Amino acid sequence: MKEIALGILASLFFAVTFILNHSMELEGGSFLWSSSLRYFFMLPFLLIIVSARKGMPVLTKEMKAKPLPWLCWSFVGFVLFYAPLTFAAAYGPGWLVSGTWQFTIIAGVLLAPFFVNYIDGRPIRQKVPVTSLLISSIIVIGIILIQIPSSQNVSTSQLLLSILPVIVAAFAYPLGNRKMMDLCQGRLDTFQRVLGMTIASMPAWIVMAVYALFTVGLPSMSQLIQSLIVGISSGVIATVLFFIATDRVHHDQGKLAAVEATQSTEIIFVIIGEIFLLGIPLPTPLALFGIIAIIIGMSLHSYYTMLLKKKENILVQAANVKHEQKPKLRA
């Protein structure tokens, strides 16, 4: 339950991304600057945090030991995640990008077979948690209901250009996150891992920034300020909260899927934010039914996670009792 609460709180800060990315695009800002500036602004904050916690020596050692995996999965988890999101913001409003982003709920569940657990030294490929997949489907239905009324005013080309890149991002983010958790094996805390991935993805952001400089020129002051807000709110606060939640349950695909499903609440925060900040109209009755479906799906995920936790505790207690009842060998 604590992990799900952390996930929902992270979603609140993640919502800032969709609202401000759309705002920057409305003002004519390039997606190249919107995406790269976020990570440029994240870097100094994370460096200060990790250095204050005396975590730089360990992080440096880990990154030097396996530089190619760090570069690869950081590119997947950060670059292939955020660049498509900012690109999509140029072709669709925040609600559409945020709504499509919720496909990551299904993506996170479907990625289970790509990971292996080792039991007694033997590799056991993980299975798709069917119950979590079914519950996540309820959330996706709610998201579709939210999008239907507004999508009638969006052209086919806008739909494709705002949906397809987000689907790429929806798979890239949980894949990069989970692969990095496997790579680190608990040797790094959340702040160290986020900083390491930010540093490892920096070459890609520098290339994008240089290209933007020669094609569209320098970013405006407004884009700089909004990117700074996104960098702190979404890049530092939300990412760290979400990674803390996933780190706690990464050993259980069902619980991990439940935490990743909390991202579905982003669309609710985005709708509220765009109503007050960008002046979009109130949701239609059909959209309200979609929001209710999301809440129901979230509640079911929470309940299912609680049942899994109770079952796990019962099994541990039974194992302890069995161990205590074993006759002790005499010397």
TrEMBL record:
Q: Which InterPro entries match?
A: EmrE (IPR032713)
Record has Aminoacyl-tRNA synthetase as a keyword: no
For whether the record's keyword set contains Transmembrane, the answer is yes
Q: Which UniProt keywords apply?
A: Membrane, Transmembrane, Transmembrane helix
UniProt name for this protein: Multidrug resistance efflux transporter family protein
Pfam families named among the record's database cross-references: EmrE (PF13536)
Record-annotated membrane-spanning stretches: 31-50, 70-89, 95-116, 128-148, 154-173, 194-218, 224-245, 257-280, 286-304
Which domain of life does the protein's organism represent?
A: Bacteria
